[in-house]
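Hi V.,

Quick status before I head out on leave. The structure for the redesign project is tokenized and pasted below; the design run finished overnight.
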């Protein structure tokens, strides 16, 4: 256990994130002093009143107060990382990076005119990122730039959330409700959602929509009539003639029917997700997904027959009970299906998930250590398999409490990259979000300012307070007309 003491600065939150990376590898109790003094950052690791490791680094000068504060925080974190590395001998694959958007750092440095060689040196010497992760980060940043460079003035993207699932997966922490328990709320939810969508369409009228993404939950938890009602409403109120991308995260195969796929195709949905998470039946049963591997294959086949030619499939590495050979089997099965996109997620033990509840703290540390040793091999295998299918990495993000401190990566065939995924990660244009738990992000000043407009998470509150949610948006939109 590490007892942190910050002296002359308020970077406690960021430093605790660094400490959290090393917790599974630390035995015993230590004091850690992080000190800012005279443009120096110092970290001292103390055991029984004796300093056992110490690191001191100068802080680069800056021409603005904001840059000076960033430099200070960077070096305070770097010195803490160094002493914890000395204690444990454990180098983190992403070094001291704990944020969810690693590629934003690449874009930020490039805007400052820093070339790739200098960038690589900085990622190695200051951030302590491993060479293979630096390579991945730069490759993804270049792919993102191809997409972001085509953003237009006043362009927006739209997100619409459907917070229902047939069952709740063991690892899930999203705003999602059991369809069985909340089936009587679906129609009233759609009433409220369509009202919010209508307001958004009117308030943002005239602005080009680059991408529209319907996620969840599981959007195809809606029955055929409900899905058609929603898509008809979207088509009636939004100007979609020039839209580049229209996605429905169909998700679980036990919610997808031929008629729903026909409705999506008829309504010009161009991209869908059919997400297996694993192609091993024992795993699907263990994580609470009540469908079979054969159902995944059958739904994919029907989608192809109906002309869906841009299909994403999600998998998760580190699912309970899975070994490297199980992931290899999943990848072989996906290779036979040949989707245009594969998104590779690394398991994260999320605070609101059932898995988190089932693991006591001591068990969680043991679990993380055991799983982390496998994840790297699983990630390497996934990257090789995706590249062999002609899919290249184009977007990436990270989460807290990811096993092994790794990453999630989206792979796509050239020309099939998901625009919405890149926009939401890089926060380069406003994304207007509707639905329970949805968060609108208004982007101003070329990304220098982001205002968030949040909807309530509770399903019942969203339905009864929909006028309040609309008023929140009205005020947010008016602020920077």
């Amino acid at each position: 256990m590490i007892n942190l003491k910050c002296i002359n600065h308020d970077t406690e939150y960021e430093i605790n994130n660094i400490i959290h990376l090393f917790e599974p590898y630390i035995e015993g109790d230590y004091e850690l002093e992080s000190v800012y003094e005279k443009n120096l950052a110092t970290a001292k690791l103390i055991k029984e009143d004796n300093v056992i490791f110490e690191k001191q680094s100068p802080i680069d000068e800056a021409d603005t107060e904001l840059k000076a504060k960033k430099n200070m925080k960077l070096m305070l974190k770097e010195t803490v990382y160094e002493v914890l590395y000395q204690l444990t001998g454990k180098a983190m694959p992403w070094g001291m990076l704990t944020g969810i958007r690693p590629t934003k750092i690449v874009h930020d440095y490039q805007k400052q005119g820093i070339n790739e060689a200098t960038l690589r040196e900085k990622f190695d010497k200051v951030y302590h990122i491993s060479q293979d992760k630096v390579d991945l980060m730069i490759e993804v940043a270049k792919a993102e730039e191809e997409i972001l460079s085509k953003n237009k003035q006043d362009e927006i993207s739209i997100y619409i959330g459907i917070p229902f699932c047939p069952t709740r997966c063991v690892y899930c922490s999203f705003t999602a409700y059991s369809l069985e328990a909340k089936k009587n709320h679906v129609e009233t939810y759609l009433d409220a959602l369509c009202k919010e969508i209508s307001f958004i369409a009117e308030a943002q009228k005239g602005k080009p929509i680059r991408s529209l993404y319907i996620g969840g939950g599981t959007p195809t938890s809606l029955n055929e009539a409900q899905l058609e009602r929603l898509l008809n409403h979207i088509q009636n109120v939004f100007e979609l003639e020039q839209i580049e991308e229209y996605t429905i995260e169909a998700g679980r195969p036990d919610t997808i029917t031929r008629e729903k796929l026909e409705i999506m195709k008829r309504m010009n949905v161009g991209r869908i997700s059919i997400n297996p998470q694993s192609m091993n039946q024992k795993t699907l049963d263990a994580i609470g997904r009540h469908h079979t591997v054969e159902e995944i294959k059958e739904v994919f086949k029907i989608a192809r027959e109906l002309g869906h030619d841009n299909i994403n499939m999600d998998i998760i590495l580190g699912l309970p009970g899975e070994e490297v050979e199980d992931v290899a089997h999943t990848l072989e099965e996906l290779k036979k299906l040949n989707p245009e996109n594969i998104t590779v997620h690394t398991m994260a033990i999320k605070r609101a998930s059932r898995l988190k509840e089932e693991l006591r703290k001591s068990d969680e540390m043991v679990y993380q250590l055991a799983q982390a040793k496998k994840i790297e091999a699983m990630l390497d295998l996934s990257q090789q398999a995706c590249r062999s299918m002609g899919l290249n990495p184009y977007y990436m993000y990270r989460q807290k409490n990811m096993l092994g401190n790794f990453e999630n990566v989206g792979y796509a065939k050239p020309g099939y990259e998901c625009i919405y995924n890149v926009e939401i990660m890089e926060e380069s244009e406003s994304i207007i979000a509707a639905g329970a738990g949805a968060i609108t992000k208004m982007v101003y000043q070329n990304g220098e300012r982001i205002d968030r407009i949040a909807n309530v998470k509770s399903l019942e509150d969203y339905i009864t307070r929909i006028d309040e949610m609309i008023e929140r948006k009205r005020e947010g939109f008016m602020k920077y007309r």
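Above is the designed sequence. Residues 361-388 form the longest helix (28 residues).

G. will cover questions while I'm gone.

Best,
W.
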